[in-house]
Structures are given as structure tokens and as C-alpha cells.
Amino acid sequence: MSLVNFTTREITCKIVYYGPGRSGKTTNLQHVYSRVPADRKGLMVSLATQTDRTLFFDFLPLDLGTISGFTTKFQLYTVPGQVYYNATRKLVLQGADGVVFVADSQLRQLDENLASLQNLHANILDSGVDIRTLPLVLQFNKQDLPRELILTPEELDEALNFRGLPAFPADALHGVGVFETLKAIAAEVLRKLSAADSGAHRV
Amino acid sequence: MTTSVVEPWAERPLVKYVEQAGARLVVVMTPAGQVLAQHGFTRAVDLMAAAALGAAIMASSGALAQQIGERPFGSLFHAGMRHGIHLAACSTPRGPLIVLTVFGKETSIGLVELFFEEFAAALQQAAPVTTVREPVLAGDFEADLNRSLTSLFRR
């Protein structure tokens, strides 16, 4: 749940990057980290295995600056994508204000994308949150790979995006689509704070 | 040293706890890693990383406790060469909270634990029972968001 401090006029929101293993969640955060000036970000924390697979999460705090008179901070998290790390995925999802689902565009990864999306729904349901009320955007990553290996954004939309959510083709390794995705989830999350029944914790 | 609070009710108990326990850094956070109050951090982004890690430690040790049929561990302590850390949970009307305390040689884990109990009781007493949910941002926030993100990414 977003934290809003009316005294100091600050908002803090938690965004979680979700998706199957090796879909590019950490790469998204690494690109953001590489592009943001030092005074607007904290250290990127990665709890990873010796082979650089995410073990618990990656974490990147960002200072977005002033929005509608509020100093706005975003906390970006990734979850470990590998199937057997579901317990840690559930922990990281706690209190998320928005989720980016990073799908791997490779044809041979379609089943993994579907399984991960179902797993996201199940974990959100388990945490007592109605998925229809949680801001969610999709990213179709690895669109830079050869055409014969991947599905097009339209095909992925057909397969994964049955709720008509905002979706963005991306090549996170080279930064394509990373900004657009972050902007979309930030807008979705902040839109909730501008609507009635915002879900923000007011103090 | 700086003390800042997101939720004003936490300030007085925090200031007293820092003085009594001789803590260098303290973060009061939700189980999701959202900071409610802090003492000793100068950069908000460093504070957020500490809170995320503290919440993660408590969450993972709690999950481990559950797996072995144990109740969630109330507190954890690690001693280093120059600093010790104490992580503990407490329940309040505001919901469960986690407190991360970093302390040096000028105090001890015994004192931190002693005064943490008083701190937890003070938080429980001071925390509000209800929360108010209402719109926060103006409807036209997107222009500000676009400007902020554009400057952030230097596009």
C-alpha cells in the first residue's frame, strides 16, 4: 500500500517486476539504474546466487521528484523467476502497489510465461488482494531476437493479455521499452492515488 | 543526527528509544518495507534499501519458522566488529511493524533489547486505530509525472 505523508508531502510506492526466469526483470532494473542520475537513486541491491540468478530480490529506490506537490519515491523490486522460489516471490509481493509482468517473447518460453502469469494471479489472490484492483502492465521483452525465435507483440497480446492491460514491446538489454514500461506502471499506480478509494495510507 | 517520520505519532517514542538505547540508526517499517520513521539516515534512498533488506530478513525468517512449525521469531540479532543489528517485530493498532536498530560499542544488545520492549509498548499505545483513505493527487498529475520521468532518464 502506498504511504502518503501529508505533513512532509511525500508518497512512497512499491513496484514489483514479475515474470518467468531469465525474462529480463533484473535487466530492466539494471537499465534504469544505469540511466538515472546518482542523486535520484540509491544503491541497487541484488540478492543473487553466485551465477547472478536472483535468489531473493533486486531492489532499486528511485526519487521521481515532485508530482502534484508531493515528493514521490518509488521502490522497484524484482522477484526470482525460477519456479521453486515461490515462497520468496510471495514475500516480495507483499504490499505491492503495482506489478510489471515481464514476459519472455521467445516462442519456446510461452508456457513459462503462462505459468508465471497464473502464479502471479494465485499469489496475489493468496495475499487477499483483488487482482482487478492492482495496477498491472505487461512488457514483451527480447523483441530484438531473430523473428523466427519470437512471438510478435500482437501474438503475445493474444496469448497473455486477456484483460487488455497496457503492454509494451521491449529489448531491456539495450533499454528499448524500459522507460515506457516504468512510466506506464507509475501512471497506473499514481492514478489510483488520484481516484476515490485510493488505498493510500494517509497520516 | 536526523530523525524523520512519515507518521507523526511514531516520533516521540522513537526519539526516546534512540536516546535510551544509544542506537546509531533506527528504522520503523511495515512488513512490506515501507518506512514509517527513522533516525540517523541522511539519504532517503539509502534508508529505503535498509528497510527493504530488514523487512526481507524478517519475512524470510518468519517463513522459515513456519516451515519448521515454529511461531514467527520475535527478534533477531547479529553482532559485527563495529556494529550490531537488532531486528524485531511488534504489533500495533496500525498493523504489524518491524524495527531495525543499528548500534555501536557505546551500548549493548542487552540495553537495546531492554529498551526495545518499552519502545514497542509506546508504539502500540501511540499508533492510530483507523486510517483514512481518500484521493491524494490532483487529477492532472500526469504532466508532472511525464516531466519527472523525462528528467530522470534525461530523455
Structure explained in plain terms:
- The complex is a heterodimer of chains A (203) and B (155).
- Chain A is an alpha/beta fold and 203 residues long.
- Chain A has one domain (3-196): Rossmann fold (3-Layer(aba) Sandwich), CATH 3.40.50.
- In chain A, 30% of the residues lie in helices and 28% in strands.
- In chain A, strands 1, 2, 3, 4, 5, 6, 7, 8 and 9 form a nine-stranded mixed beta sheet that branches.
- In chain A, strand 1 (3-5) and strand 2 (10-18) form a beta hairpin.
- The longest helix of chain A has 17 residues, at 110-126.
- In chain A, 53% of the residues are buried.
- The model of chain A has no long low-confidence stretch (mean pLDDT 91).
- Chain B is α+β, with helices and mostly antiparallel strands and 155 residues long.
- Chain B has one domain: 2-Layer Sandwich (Beta-Lactamase).
- Chain B is built from four helices and six strands; from the N terminus they run βαββαβββαα.
- Chain B has helices spanning 11-21, 44-67, 109-126, 141-153, and strands at 3-5, 23-29, 35-39, 75-79, 84-92, 95-103.
- Chain B has a six-stranded antiparallel beta sheet, sandwiched between helices.
- The termini of chain B are far apart.
- At the A-B interface, strand 1, strand 2, strand 4, strand 5 and helix 2 of A face helix 2 and helix 4 of B.
Protein traits:
heterodimer, A: 203 residues, alpha/beta, Rossmann fold, 9-stranded mixed β-sheet, 5 helices, 9 strands, 30% helix, B: 155 residues, alpha+beta, Beta-Lactamase, 6-stranded antiparallel β-sheet, 4 helices, 6 strands, 25% strand, globular
Shape of chain B: globular
Query: What's the SSE pattern of chain A?
Result: EEHEEEHEHEHEHE
Q: Unreliable segments of chain B (pLDDT under 50, ≥5 consecutive)?
A: none
Distance between the termini of chain A: 13 Å
By CATH reckoning, the class of chain B would read Alpha Beta
CATH superfamily of chain B: Dynein light chain 2a, cytoplasmic
Oligomer: heterodimer
What sort of overall outline of chain A do the alpha carbons produce when their principal axes are compared? globular
- The average pLDDT score of chain B comes to 89
Q: Based on DSSP secondary structure assignment, what is the total number of beta strands of chain B?
A: 6
Rg calculated over all Cα atoms of chain B:
18 Å
Estimated share of beta-strand residues of chain B: 15-25%
Q: Pairing-aware structural class of the strands and helices of chain A?
A: alpha/beta
What's the total number of strands of chain A? 9
Number of helices of chain A: 5
How many domains of chain B? The number is 1
Largest two-chain interface? A-B, 62 and 47 residues
CATH class of chain A: Alpha Beta
